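thought: fold this chain, then report.
action: predict
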Amino acid sequence: MIHDKDYILRIVKQFSEFLTKRILDESEETISEQQRIFDTNMNDTFKMSFNELSSKSAEEITQLIHEKESNHHIPYFELLGHLFYAKAKETDNKDFSEKAIVFYQLYLQTSGIFSLPIVNRINEIKKALE
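observation:
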């Protein structure tokens, strides 16, 4: 059971790192390879596609995370913030931007960490939504 928990956290953190590189445009993969990695990570992490996940409200997604072990909440909230931020930048979707703010704020509140890059992203999104 301990190995399963470590595996889940490792998958979440790897997906988060992949998205961070994608956000910062530091990814070395081709677009098709990035999409394949993205789809695989979505399935491994959430057991659903991004379209299925994004069709849920922020409250429904938060409830899914709260059903997981409490020590998994922080990495999941960070991942969800990165995920919706990256997709909002790609598609200019207001709903994705709002969800990114929600999950980044949950990450900051749950972790108790002050992260200037995340605070800057929240401010950037808020300005874009104005």
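thought: worth noting. The mean pLDDT is 90.
final: tokens above.
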